[in-house]
Amino acid sequence: MANERTYPLLPCRDLDEAIAFYETLGFRRTYRQLRPNPAAVVQREDWHIHLFGMPDFDPAASYGSVIVVVPDPDALYRDFAAGLRAAYNKLPVSGIPRILRPRKKFGTVYGFSVVDVGGNWLRISKIGDTEPQKDDEETTGLAGFVNVAARLGDARGDEALALKTIENGLKKFPDAPAVERARAYLYRAELAIRLKDEVLAQTSLAAAEALELSQHERDSIAEELARTAELVWGFSQD
Length: 238
Prior knowledge:
- By secondary structure, the chain is an alpha/beta fold.
- Among the domains are: about 10-60, Roll (2,3-Dihydroxybiphenyl 1,2-Dioxygenase, domain 1), CATH 3.10.180.10; about 135-238, Serine Threonine Protein Phosphatase 5, Tetratricopeptide repeat (Alpha Horseshoe), CATH 1.25.40.10.
- It has nine helices and eight strands.
- It has helices at about 15-25, 75-90, 135-140, 140-155, 160-170, 180-195, 200-210, 215-220, 220-235; strands at about 10, 30-35, 40-45, 45-55, 65-70, 100-105, 110-115, 120-125.
- The protein has a four-stranded mixed beta sheet, with helices on one face.
- About 35% of the residues are buried.
- The model has no long low-confidence stretch (mean pLDDT about 90).
């Protein structure tokens, strides 16, 4: 049968809090009910999310997860980030809710994730994207450690184990190419912020900035460096 549609139904502790959160992401409420069960629908263009309220629900224990494919993850990330900055006066990257920046070759397909106020993961990737076939440089050495760490930190939310993986990689490959070390330091800085370690975040960013890179290498990490610097600066202002 053609034209079927499936809508995710996600739990939240407080329905109004969840609606407000999605409004910061550019959604609008299209439906709300209190009885027989609290429920609501929020919509952003063709994207519909159905919410239901559970007063005793623990967001930290949520297993809710939704895969969303979009034409341009970077544009969507910028929209979401702008809304979250306006609402929270910073970009929330740790705890609940939070947003994880777009990442290329550090996980599976290219994209980013948002954890909403109910602890539900919105895993956003590019339409038609598939997991890249990685060459030896991406699966071995320090780059391989970073790749594994990103899966742990970004896909599973285990920042402590991801940080330990990065530290092990840096110790094992102290002479790795400078650009690989830069990416490792930048991701370590991001993980440190999520784990609320300001000193490690600052020293990791400084280590990445101090590396001698070619102009091509510096250009290749420019956006990553800028986003990480913004996170470290924002964290230091708290």
